[in-house]
Amino acid sequence: MTTIIDYLEKNKQNYPKKIFLQTESHKITYEEMYNKVCNFEVGLNQFKKKSIISIMFENSIEFVISYLGIIKSGKIVHIISPSISKKNFIKQIESCNPKMILSLNKFINEFKNEKNTINFLDFYEFEKENYENNKNENSDIASLIYTSGTTSSPKGVQIKHSNIEFTTQNIIKVLDYSNCDVDVIPLPLSHSFGLGCLHTSLYIGSTVFLYKNSMNILDILNSIKKNNATTFAAVPATLTTLVNNFPEKFTEKCMGLRLIITNSTKIPKDTIHKILNLLPNTKFVTYYGLTEASRSTFMIFNENENKKESVGKAAPDVKIKIIQEKGDSKQGEIYIKGKNVIENYWNSEFSENLTEGWLKTGDLGFLDKEGFLYLTGRKDYIINISGEKVNPLEIEEVVKTLENIDEVIAIGIDHKMFGQVIKLLVKIKEGKKVDSSDILSHCKQNLERFKVPMEVEFVPDFPRNEYGKIIRFKIKENNNENS
Amino acid sequence: MDVKNEIKKIFFDVFANLNDKNFNFNEKQEDYLNWDSFAHLELMTGTETKFNIKISPEDALSIRTAQELLELVQSRI
């Protein structure tokens, strides 16, 4: 079984002194990283095969050492975003029951009271301990990442080493990565987009400039030029901000890039057009994928200028089919099959989503005659906010715990920066009063930031069917007409 | 208007975990647990509405502390 650690080791042998990773505060060579990962592994060998070790870090050197150390020890790394809500934190921990959670004291202080039985450990305290080395068998599962499910419970996506290897080789093949690349990544590593970029650099032996996020985008632009970066991965919101507000700076700093890659959250056509015009020699690429089926398609805009609304063709050795429902000849549900697709969810839940290797994505779309995939919406009511999938039920459950709320519906509305954001429609109990600021403040305390509604509208009632059930799609239609 | 207090209130509105005890005008964006692009947008639009000013994208991107936002507002009103 090949794992990303084999590639780290190979790079350590081939280019020991080459910088592998640079963050705002650290710089580390392949050799140094390999040695740190080996040291880190020893402390984890006390646990049995298939034990889960959770990590909760922002993008940082600590994230990368822990992630690789856990994989090297043959255990399963459960990745938790530090921006997780306390409620979802508990749900994930209860679902996967980790042996310990590695983090930093600033996050531990925020979360430790929620679950006292959990073995929360500070990264640096763990690193300095001496452990006995009892190496045991490796798990074929590398990592566990939770995503929104169609119920309000999150789905544990278990990713095998073979999934990572297949996907990464496809990325390298389609996008021509080489060890000469210098990759700028301001994407969360707790998300499949950012993690896939890190795997790519590790496989090919390039250098990564890792940023916590894209908040300081002008500094990141300067770093692209200063460090002669060749690739830049960013979400559509970041690219849209850049081309709309700083086109000259964007052109000047990015003209040396050979590749810009973004994910398939709605990219405004205008942003695609501007990037292609400002940087005609830079490949501009998007892809379609899910945590369960990473990088299932690739779209190189420069080579397909008349298909800007497509997310591209299936990746090598990945199959895509559309299953239409009766009466809908134009679009259907997207199914994916390939070695990038997971075999099971954690605890074998949600098995209905996987049949004979085909993943039912819940996304709606169609293929044109040349095999280009177009996304048209969702089969369920999942909302995509800047690449993060959000189940409206989760938001509604939180709001319903407030007093005087009769019924509430959360929907996705279009947003020029984030693709979609949440709008809340609230029906208050008769004769009662609720302030929108109280609802928002309650949401901020109980939900991840990106799930907090941007708009709240109070309504007298909702459209209903003959049985009195709220018709969600009607509400969504009405709001899209108005937006 | 007490600008300093109003800026503090905007931060308290955006970050539910902040209060008078743990709020520091000079704490940097990267030291917050959850100052991301969603929070940033809310801070900027909240400030624009409160003080009836327009914050340019360049100015918005340069704000890394509550103190910097306070100084920006003071220079505009």
Order of helices and strands of chain B: HHHH
Which ranges of chain B are low-confidence, i.e. pLDDT below 50, for 5 or more consecutive residues? none
Question: What proportion of the residues of chain B form beta strands (DSSP E)?
Answer: under 5%
CATH topology of the largest domain in chain A: Rossmann fold
Shape of chain A: globular
Oligomer status: heterodimer
Q: What's the CATH C level of the largest domain in chain A?
A: Alpha Beta
Q: Any idea of the CATH topology of chain B? A: Non-ribosomal Peptide Synthetase Peptidyl Carrier Protein, Chain A
Large-scale geometry of chain B: globular
Number of domains of chain B: 1
Structural class call of chain B reads mainly alpha
CATH homologous superfamily annotation of chain B: ACP-like
- Report the strand count of chain B: 0
Low-confidence stretches of chain A: none
Separation of the first and last Cα atoms of chain A: 51 Å
Cα separation of the termini of chain B: 10 Å
Question: Would you kindly provide a written description of the structure presented here, covering whatever features stand out?
Answer:
Chain A is of the alpha/beta class and 483 residues long. Chain A has two domains: 4-284, Rossmann fold, CATH 3.40.50.12780; 383-482, ANL, C-terminal domain (GMP Synthetase, Chain A, domain 3), CATH 3.30.300.30. In chain A, 33% of the residues lie in helices and 27% in strands. Chain A contains 15 helices and 25 strands. The mean pLDDT of chain A is 92. Chain B has 77 residues and is mainly alpha-helical. Chain B has a single domain, classed as ACP-like (Non-ribosomal Peptide Synthetase Peptidyl Carrier Protein, Chain A). Chain B has four helices and no strands. The longest helix of chain B has 15 residues, at 37-51. The N and C termini of chain B lie close together (10 Å). The chains are: A alpha/beta (483), B mainly alpha (77). Chains A and B meet through helix 5, helix 10 and helix 14 of A and helix 2 and helix 3 of B.
